[in-house]
Amino acid sequence: MSIYEYQPMLIFFVIVAAVFGAVMGSFLNCAAWRIAHGESFVKGRSHCPECGHTLGASELIPVLSYVIQKGRCKACGTKLSVRYPITEVAFSCITVICLLRFDLTILCLRNYIFICCLFVLFFTDLDDMIIPDGCHIVSIAAWIVAQPFLFTGWGDTALSVAAAFLFGGGLLGVSLVMDRVLGRDSLGGGDIKLFFVIGLYLGMIGTLFTMMLACIVGLIIHGLSKGREKNREFPFGPSIAVAAAAMLLFGQPLIAWYGSLI
Ligand SMILES: [Zn+2]
Q: Residue 56 Cα, ligand 1 centroid: separation in angstroms?
């Protein structure tokens, strides 16, 4: 089945994806917050971080709840972070793009799961410099489960696995040398494991592009941050996550365009 078979179906699926994406964005945001604060994200209901007030159904609607409550907690009136509605809208858009890009396929589902993991680790690394192993485990599991359905020959599979070990292992080697030279931690272990996973999903060329793109994004973010922010230790995970998601969704045309330049 394809969403492109006829127009009403396309419109229907885009709306479903947009709503689902906003709900998913809200859930993942909450999961990231709980992981960063050492809470279980399976147990317990959503609550206000200030007063602990348990959120009712009307307070859990993505974007709309924020607008209706004018960005404040219903119980204590604390201002809620504008990050929530922004990321919900952003993830809604990402979900629609993922569907339009990969159609109703196993590939779409697999890549979407990976993007969800990238979204979570973007925030946990940004807030607390943590890249949860759970994100890597879920991503790798999705890749393994989907692989028999997407099988295009042993050559491709071997190349993906080789890319994972090359980039994961290569970065581990580089970081060990850098740690010695600099006398401090250079690249986090989470970043290295993340590049292992990206190798699986994007292969040699895609991972190489992700690495370059991540450095560019990192430099831009670092350039934009000022004062106190600039001096504190800088998490690289968010830049890698943005670059990997961009390569996953727009990588093919980007690589083709780059190829045409040289
Ligand atoms: Zn409150």
A: 12
